[in-house]
Amino acid sequence: MRRRAALALAAGLAALLTVDAARGDETAWRERAAQAAAPDERPNIVVVMTDDADRRAMRRMPVVRREIAGRGVEFRDASAAFPLCCPSRASFLSGQFAHNSGAVEGGGNRSCVPQFDASSTVATSLADAGYRNVLVGKYLNGWEDDAAPGDPAGEAPPGWSRFLALVRYDLFDWALSVDGKRIRQFGNRARDYQTDVLARLASQQTAVSAKRRKPFFLMLSTHAPHGESGGGAGARDPRPAPRHQGEFNDVPFPEPPSFNEADVSDKPSFLQVPELGFGKIQNLKRRFKGRGESLLAVDEAVARIRDRLRAAGELSNTIFVFTSDNGFMLGEHRLAKKTLLYEESAGVPLAIRGPGFRGRDVDVPVTSVDLAATVLEAAGAAPPKTPDGVALQAIASDPEAYADRHVLTENRDGGAPGQVGASVRSERWTYIRQRVDGQTYEELYDRAEDHFQLTNLATDPGYAAILGEMRVRLTALESCAGAACG
Fold first, then answer.
1. Model-level pTM greater than 0.70?
2. What's the CA gap between 359 and 356, in Å, rounded?
3. DSSP per residue, 8-74
4. Which residues pair with residue 61 across a beta bridge?
5. How far apart are CA 108 and CA 137, in angstroms?
6. I need a labelling partner for 63 at 20 to 30 A (CA). Which of 33, 162, 318, 484 fits?
7. 207-257 pLDDT tens trace
8. Does 73 score more than 60 pLDDT?
9. Residue 40 contacts residue 307 (beta carbons within 8 Å)
């Protein structure tokens, strides 16, 4: 920051001497000189967003655990506003829940891009506030649908100074749009490994941004640990960088009490599937291994950006975020997917270090729309639309003030065509309400006593009072806007 301040001061004073001396207006010169002498100390903001990483991801990422969570704040009860790639990312970029942004499509391979207003986002607000904004990696599923090899891949959305976005997602044999002007192809050599290339680009852009006389926003959005080619439960396992192949051979596959749950009769009928057989369990174990090994390159990417920030003297004045767009189920309740409203699917890792984020972990429920409010608060930027979230600086500084907070998660097509659902969660309770073909399904879980959501209490008369309260809260949040969502 000292270098940035010195450059800004020199340039500002030079301009003032020329203009104001000519005017002979000494008062105006002194006022403007004082403004130029005040450096822009607003923080840089770096967001690393993975794809499908559940809350357990940070246990397998030593750099993220030590350098971000260990030196900042881990939000241990973070969840996606919509546990599916495109709507979840839209909630971060818009700062709104899907029922307000309109970006609710995305089931199967459908995109939420037609519903998303790219002209009014966190990026445009930060640009208006003087930030240099860089996206490296995944944007929104489907924005590139009209792209062909060698052709431009759609226009870069407003607000981005550099827009280096994926147009084909596999970790080898993939493609990148360069500012919407051309497509760059990558093959199957070790040096083409997607996460490593994105890390190099993010590191380079960090260095370029740090030389400017204004703060910057960098979003590194990886495809890892998402499955490859095909999407959904049938996708191929994510491939690790060659140097990480085999590193999870001895890591035990997690089998919590909810894994291959013995009795799912209390779950909605459209989610009651047969017990997992040997073959499916072996597939899940292979998927777990690929996911974990692919995240090791993401961990190294975080280290690379950290080192570049430190070398530029910007690390202490950077808000550094690690998170994911949604989680992923690996056999819990016999299911292997995202989109659902259970802990493993809706829950995401979230750790933040930097100004305003030091010294404690937080168990207050938070959500991805809060992250948009957090970024805008740090930058002093006007929100693109009425924000639905709460800036996490406030929650980190005084968690007790938010002890009774309830947050919303929405979904569509989660387990059945035409399904529409939402959940509300507090520190203790989760209530889920879903509708399919005119039928309403309710679930209530006491997470203090039943963290793995094994026993649905919605039909237990002893919990009628809390069920009624959670129904009221969910009804209010399903149509909330702005401060009413917080």
1. yes
2. 10
3. HHHHHHHHHHHHHHHHT-HHHHHHHHHHHHS---PPEEEEEEESS--GGGGGG-HHIIIIIITTSEE
4. none
5. 21
6. 162
7. 999 998 899 999 999 999 999 875 444 568 999 999 999 999 999 999 999
8. yes
9. no
